[in-house]
Amino acid sequence: MSDTTTPSASDPVAPPVPPPSPADAPPVNPYVSAPAAPQAAPNPFVSPGAPAEAYAPGAYQPVPTSPPPTALAPYSTSGVAYAYAPRTNPVAITSLVLSLAGILTWITAIGGVIAGHIALSQIKRTGEGGRGMAIAGLVVGYVLSGFLLLYVLLMVFVFIGLSSVRSY
């Protein structure tokens, strides 16, 4: 039997070996080399025999431009900074809205066509903006009115066809 106070070599559990004290030697990092004396890198653009004073800072003289550049004007607080767009004709907006609402209601497309013609005449007379909206309201209104007319004609022919069929 082995003694429990002193482990032997045949004993599988041995107490840990204490690390060396830091006062003995400082740890050495193997990845860092010792700092070298600072050296200036040689200039690759200077020939080795050239005198140093020929390359002194401030020796470069810029080539003058012809004519000299003018100073930029500062920001001003007076005057109009942007050109304003002309006011949009409200009837043109109404024409487009009524025509687009005609997608759901079908009947307002006719109002969009009427408002579009009124808007175009007002725009021509006053010079307001919104000509594109008025034209879009006219196009959408005419297309939807055409579909409405086709639908009404189809329903008339269907009812005439159904009423002419007699069942005995």
Write the layout of secondary structure elements.
Blueprint: H1 90-105, H2 108-126, H3 131-164
Helix pairs in contact: 1-2, 1-3, 2-3
The global form is elongated
**Number of helical segments with 4 or more residues:** 3
Distance between the termini: 123 Å
Classify the secondary structure makeup into a structural class.
mainly alpha
> Helix and strand succession?
HHH
- Binned, the helix content reads 40-55%
Mean pLDDT: 79
DSSP strand tally: 0
The residue ranges in which pLDDT falls below 50 over 5 or more consecutive positions are: none
Largest sheet composition:
none
**Share of residues in strands:** under 5%
| Radius of gyration, taken over Cα atoms and rounded to an integer in Å | 48 Å
Report on the architecture of this protein.
α1 (90-105) packs antiparallel against α2, α1 runs parallel beside α3 (131-164) and α2 (108-126) runs antiparallel to α3 (131-164). By secondary structure, this protein is mainly α. The chain has helices at residues 90-105, 108-126, 131-164.
